[in-house]
Design a protein that fits this description.
By secondary structure, this protein is mainly beta. Among the domains are: 46 residues, no CATH class; 77 residues, Elongation Factor Tu (Ef-tu), domain 3; 52 residues, no CATH class; 86 residues, no CATH class. It is built from one helix and 35 strands. Strand 3 and strand 4 form a beta hairpin. It is rod-shaped, with a radius of gyration of 55 Å.
């Protein structure tokens, strides 16, 4: 009786050419995927060898359940191995419910992607990871699930369906390189323009000019910016480069004694200082008004620092004032500046003929006149320095002037007093009250006669003309051997043919020209001339 049964066998790597029905055949050569080594064959009922197993397959299945990472075929690595799923542990995929024995391996790779733990890797050098759907399919992240960035989850995006029902972006600042959009803290910057809460500002280091262009495709003066609600300008200079400016206000107010400032740092309870965005125009004695600095005796400016923009006020705050809050400054300081409208114009051509005019309230006493302080002033060629205007006063072209009731006398005559102020004489009906006088107001004409030679005249002498009895006048100023003579109180017209008579004496000089200085000018005199006969 035999003790060893041997099947058909070969040390090679080729399959047997035939096997009887039920007969076994074994190859023990090193098997690979391209040969038939390490295989076990069985003959079918047609005598054909059928592959039923062998070391080639048992080597591939020799790895413990669930292990993939770091494993390899123990006999022939190039033959690979077959992972065996481990079902010994539970799991809860996507939170959809616990699976008591969840089949799994410790790592899995497909083509250039590797899934390990909670991480998907691309395993080719610099390989991308893409999510590509079929047709209109979408890559979807479920409600209330964060898409986070960075090893420490430094930035996150979430659709907050259960809360705000909005996309929420939290964590680190975002920078859109190609779009020049940056989300920095509470401010979103578009290039150099930032938006934070209800504030639009320039980015730090991005310049100090902010443009609003409603029509970039047009010229610099095209398009319309519409401001709904009030417009507050807190700067020191407002320039309007337009041809037409209209306002609906019936009274245009300038030189306002109130202004607004922005709080730059939180003011806590019990302090007497506040940091503002600007202290330009603030003086001691001004009043600060804000919630927390509004009680009687609190908020009067006692000091300010132009470098730190810290303002010290009387008393202490009784409530917290948050940064970006607005405070109202009521100015209580005489700036000794003028108030009014200045305007620019050109008298001919070229920049050398540019002028500045001014009309309005003059804070100081009249320069070049005796006008009192705070008088209305018009200066056509003005110099404006720190809101103080100087220059020669201009003319007034109007139809008439009304005086305040009580500042004039009916039918009185307007005259200038010693300070140059126009004043009214008494009413003619009260003339009886003027009992004595050595002067009378009369209207006179003044001329200048140019002679055909030189002559001398005494002031007060009467000048007539030979053959022209209708013309006469009185010498205004003594002349000596001069070729001109000035006459006042002139009646008639001197001609260029007759000699002049000086108190009846022929001067043997006749006029070559006569020019009129003024006609019928009102003048005070103590002499009444009845004329000649």
């Amino acid at each position: 009786m035999a003790s060893i049964i041997r099947v058909k066998r070969s040390t090679g790597v080729a399959a047997p050419s035939s096997l009887n029905f039920g007969e076994l055949g074994l190859t023990v050569g090193v098997g690979t995927v391209t040969n038939r080594g390490g295989r076990l064959f069985a003959g079918d009922n047609s005598g054909n060898p059928q592959l039923v197993g062998g070391k080639f397959y048992t080597d591939m299945m020799s790895i413990a359940p669930g292990l993939v990472q770091g494993q390899d075929n123990p006999a022939t690595p190039d033959n690979g191995f077959i992972p065996v799923l481990d079902t010994r542990s539970p799991g809860n995929p996507g939170g959809g419910g616990n699976v008591n024995r969840l089949p799994r391996v410790d790592q899995w790779s497909v083509d250039n992607l590797t899934l390990d733990g909670n991480t998907i890797y691309s395993n080719n050098n610099d390989g991308d990871i893409k999510f590509v759907t079929n047709g209109t399919g979408e890559v979807n992240i479920d409600d209330d699930t964060f898409l986070s960035f960075g090893a420490g989850k430094d930035a996150k995006i979430e659709y907050d369906e259960n809360g705000t029902d909005k996309i929420r972006v939290t964590g680190a600042d975002w920078v859109y390189e190609n779009l020049n959009v940056e989300i920095n803290g509470g401010t979103t910057f578009f290039d150099n323009v930032g938006i934070s809460s209800n504030v639009i500002s320039t980015k730090s280091g991005g310049g100090n000019t902010l443009f609003i262009d409603p029509y970039p495709d047009g010229l610099s003066n095209e398009g319309t910016v519409i401001v709904k609600g009030d417009l507050q300008v807190d700067g020191t200079t407002t320039t309007v480069n337009s041809n037409n400016v209209t306002v609906n206000d019936s009274i245009f107010n300038i030189g306002d004694v109130t202004s607004n400032r922005t709080v730059m740092a939180t003011v806590v309870v019990g302090v007497s200082t506040i940091t503002l965005d600007s202290v330009v125009g603030i003086n001691t004695g001004d009043q600060i008004a804000a919630t927390g600095i509004d009680a009687s005796g609190i908020g009067t400016v006692s000091a300010y620092n132009t470098s730190t923009k810290v303002v010290t006020y009387t008393g202490t705050s009784n409530a917290e004032i948050s940064a970006t809050s607005q405070v109202v400054i009521t100015h209580g300081f005489d700036t000794n500046t003028d108030r009014g409208i200045s305007f620019n114009y050109n008298t001919s051509s070229g920049t050398g003929n540019n002028k500045t005019g001014f009309f309005g309230y003059n804070d100081s006493a009249g320069e070049g006149s005796s006008a009192i302080a705070r008088a209305w002033t018009y200066i056509p060629d003005a110099t404006v320095t720190n809101s103080v205007v100087s220059g020669t006063r201009g003319f007034l072209d109007i139809k008439g002037i009304y005086y305040q009731t009580g500042d004039y006398s009916t039918h009185g005559v307007v005259f200038f007093d010693a300070n140059g102020l126009q004043t009214s004489t008494n009413d003619p009906s009260t003339a009886a009250n003027t009992l004595t006088s050595n002067q009378i107001l009369t209207a006179v004409t003044e001329i200048v006669i140019t002679l055909d030679g030189t002559a001398s005249f005494e002031a007060g002498s009467q000048v007539t003309q030979v053959g022209n009895s209708a013309a006469y006048g009185v010498v205004k100023t003594t002349t000596s051997v001069a070729n001109t003579v000035t006459l006042i109180g002139v009646v008639g017209t001197f001609n260029n043919t007759g000699d002049l008579l000086d108190d009846g004496n022929n001067t043997a000089r006749n006029p070559t020209s006569v020019s009129t200085t003024y006609t019928n000018k009102p003048i005070w005199t103590n002499t009444l001339d009845g004329g000649t006969f």
